[in-house]
Each structure stands twice: as C-alpha cells, then as structure tokens.
Amino acid sequence: MHSDPGQLSTRYAKSLLDWFQIHGRHTLPWQIDKTTYRVWLSEIMLQQTQVTTVIPYYLRFIEVFPDIQSLADATIDEVLQYWQGLGYYARARNLHRAAQIMRDDYQGQFPQELDQVMALPGIGRSTAGAILTFACGQSWPILDGNVKRVLARNFQVSGWYGQTVTMKRLWQIADQLTPAQSTAEYNQAMMDLGATVCLKTKPKCEACPVDQYCMSYQQGTQASYPEKKPAKPKPQKQTLMLLHRYQDRILLYRRPPTGIWGGLWSLPEVVDSDGIAEWQTHNLASEKAPNTINTNVLKHQFTHFSLDISLAVIELDELPHKVADEENIAFVATAELSKYGLPTPVRKLLSSKTDTQFFSLSPTGRRSFGESQSKSLI
Known about the structure:
This protein is α+β, with helices and mostly antiparallel strands. It contains 14 helices and nine strands. It has helices at residues 5-23, 36-45, 51-64, 68-73, 76-81, 90-105, 114-118, 125-136, 145-154, 164-177, 183-196, 215-219, 274-284, 344-351, and strands spanning 236-246, 249-254, 265-266, 269-270, 292-301, 306-315, 329-333, 360-361, 367-368. α9 packs across α11.
C-alpha cells in the first residue's frame, strides 16, 4: 500500500472507473440533456445539500428558468420563490447575479476559463472545476464534501477542513490523482463513492473499490478521519415576529438583500415586546397593541446557531393608509402567499395544522391566538 498518491494515480483511477461503470450514478436529471447551464445550476444546488433533496427543486427550477437568459431576466423575488425551502439563500442570490453577469459580459454564454468562472458570484475552485469538467470536457480536480472525506480517509489527512494546511494537502492529493483523460467520469466516481460507500458514519468498506489503497481501512482508523471541527456550543438566539392581519391579508416584510434569509419576504421582527409599538409607529403610523403574544412557538436550527421564535398577533381594524416603505412592505392575501419566497420557519408558522394552531376563528368572528383551526393559511 502506498502513502504517496502520485505513485498510484493510474491504478487508483482505473479501480475507481471500473467500479463507476457498474455502480455509479449515470441518470441524474442534470446528466441527461446536459448543458453548461444545467450543470452549473446542479452544482450550486448541491452545495451543502444532498442529491435526493436537490432533485425536485432542480426540476421545478429548470421548468421556470430553462437557461441563463431567463434566469438573468427574472426578478430576484421570482428566483427566491422557486428556491424557497432549499435553504442557504445566498446561493440563489449569487446564481441570479452570476446569470446577469453572463448576460451582460459574456453574451449570455458560460465562460470557459477557470479564472473567469471562479470570478462569478458563488463559485469557488471546486465548483468551477466541476462545471468545466462535466459540461465542457476540461480536466480539473474537484474537492466537494464527498471527495474530501474519501481522500482524508484514504491518505489519513490530519486536521479539519477549516484549516488551511489541511485543505492544501487535500488539493495536492486531488491534483495528483485526477487523470488527464476520463476526468468527468473520475470526478463523478469520486463524488458517488463518497455519497454511497465512504459515508460519514458506518462506511461500507467491504464495497469500496479503492480499499487496497486506503490507509484508514488497512489500519482500522476509518472513524478517525476526517477529523471533526472542534466542538463549540451552538448559540441560542431569540426573536419576536409580528403577524399583522387584516381580514384575509397578512403583512409581509422583505428582508435586506444580505444576511440571514436575504431578499426573502418574511414577518417583521423585533427584539422583544417593547419594540412592537416603535416598529408600527415607524412603518405603519399605527400604535395598535397586539391581541396576543405567544412565546417560543417555534425553534429553527441554523448551521451556526439556534433561533427561538415568538409570535405577536396584531388584528388590524383597517389597512394602513400609508406604509413607510412600499417596496418592502406588502399586505398579501393568504391565497397569494405561495407566490412569495418565504423562509421555511415563517412558512411553517403560517401553514401549521398542529394542535398548537396559531390562527383560529373565535366565537366573536375575530382571529384569536392559540386555538385550533382546520384550514391552514397557505
């Protein structure tokens, strides 16, 4: 067994490619009727998201935005509407901006040079290499999450991915192993191996085509690689969302273009109940007190923190005559909510059918908080 990837690159690639012909994934939607645009879209969606999750979103997205031009000409609201639920919304914003750059600077075509591709929003070295390899027949190494795990185990690469020295070593190995010929098949095989065999937990080493080259397998240290990021307690944050309701309309507020849920429509947020009157006075010229406030109605997990959401319901007697920001504040009919890109927890709040339903018709005909309701809002 060699610890130097350069000495076994040919044999390693052959073993992997032979396995891929039989066991690899050849019929993913973006592998059929392949275009550079479709490959690019799939690679962006697959960042930090599993294939099985991506497929329905990809199919829906490609129907509405079939090419670079249609995506570039769309509004960001339209793009976010068809991205909602997939998470990591910066990917959608970057995708939209990159399409506009290609429309304006590259005659609507995808650039063919690695440095040009890497200069586009949301595209790093690995994603650029994958697109140019799969769609354009070029030869570049890749290093997505699955490939990192395979190489870290095969060659017992110490450290976690956030460390520069670890990533430098992984890129060095990837460069040495990636063949000049059949690069697309090899890169897909590496991703498939990580996704189906070299799993995060309980790797299927008995089915691995490169086990003879795997130092971790030979020494029984698979569980030690890749090394995990040093554990830190996840911060707990709180927010109070405001549900302004007039008849069948709900107030939505478009979030700033950057940050959490950037560009999505959501419910307004304040730190605590003391901020409700201030928000309403500034944005609606209203001092209407909330009908009810229910604390900790939903917990949402982000990658780096946990968010406890409380909800204040404000039943309005009439629509405000004027709002402070007409472009970013709208009263939307509940039947139209599905047309707006909403963060997942907000959508859950508005469509909940659980026993702790938030919106129900009280005997007086007004909506009250905390009673049961059979019909969801969206």
